[in-house]
Write a structure and sequence with these properties.
Helices cover 42% and strands 14% of the residues. The chain has 266 residues and is α/β, with parallel strands linked by helices. Bound molecules: 3-methyl-2-oxobutanoic acid and sodium ion.
């Protein structure tokens, strides 16, 4: 297999082939999902919640995300490594976005960056793309703007569908290589997917998007909290890890570990 590039993702859309994105924040998740054939590894600002234990994506910083992106880009042999630009690191101006994106590319080995927002982000997408930095846009529900959007809510309902389409088209025209749509009605997402030349990536956006993305701790059941409707749990890692850790505790306390097999004779 060859390294996935943005043009690979475009060719897959052109051929009507679906592709996949999963979050990854460290060596073993990156290597495992790469081996599984996941086309894009997203070092999401969801690391704020899923790595650093914050309650939202707002607190995580560029300096906290860079080492995670570095670990993933070192470990991914085939997947394209996509770095999320965190809250406050790109909204101020296209120049701020450029400075932040360059750090992710130079210091951490990212192949592309993702940023949230619609029409207001067109200048950012344009400058980065012109500078040689592939940009994935993110519209619909955008967690960094939760205080503006009134919490976690489906976007693009009713009249919002036309707005979603307008934003997607503007971001495509600005040079985005893909558009993530989060928590939008499936018919609205299908309409955007049909109207765009570039691939769409859905999370809670129905089956007609060109690609799908999930957060790995949700998808593999490490996160046991109430999952949003769009999460499908493919494994129950929480139970696997909990039982193993309990067994270890019992073994040590009962003297069953380490046995002779796990010890050095002399
Ligand atoms: O940060 C993240 O994990 C994301 C995906 C849910 C799209 O932005
Ligand atoms: Na994100």
């Amino acid at each position: 297999r060859k390294r996935v590039r943005t043009h690979t993702l475009q060719q897959m859309k052109d051929r009507g082939e679906k592709w996949t994105m999963l979050t990854a924040y460290d060596q073993y998740t990156a290597a495992t999902f790469d081996e599984a054939g996941v086309e894009v590894l997203l070092v999401g600002d969801s690391a704020s919640n899923n790595v650093y234990g914050n309650e939202s994506s707002l607190p995580v910083t560029v300096d906290e995300l860079i080492p995670l992106v570095r670990a993933v880009s070192r470990s991914a042999k085939h997947s394209l490594v996509l770095a999320d630009l965190p809250f406050g690191s790109y909204q101020g101006s296209p120049e701020q976005a450029f400075h932040t994106a360059v750090r992710f590319m130079k210091e951490a080995g990212a192949h592309a960056v993702k940023l949230e927002g619609g029409l207001a982000m067109v200048p950012q997408v344009k400058l980065l793309t012109d500078a040689g930095i592939p940009v994935c846009a993110h519209i619909g529900f955008t967690p960094q703007a939760e205080h503006n959007l009134g919490g976690y809510r489906v976007q693009g309902r009713g009249a919002g569908a036309a707005r979603l389409l307008e934003e997607a088209k503007a971001l495509e025209a600005a040079g985005a290589f893909a558009v993530v749509m989060e928590m939008v009605p499936a018919p609205a997402a299908a309409e955007v997917t049909k109207a765009l030349h570039i691939p769409t990536v859905g999370i809670g956006a129905g089956v007609d998007c060109d690609a799908q993305v999930l957060v790995w701790q949700d998808m593999l059941g490490l996160n046991t909290g109430k999952a949003p409707r769009f999460v499908k749990r493919y494994a129950d890692l929480h139970t696997v890890m909990l039982n193993a850790a309990r067994e270890y505790v019992d073994d040590v306390k009962g003297g069953a570990f380490p046995s002779a097999e796990h010890s050095f004779a002399e």
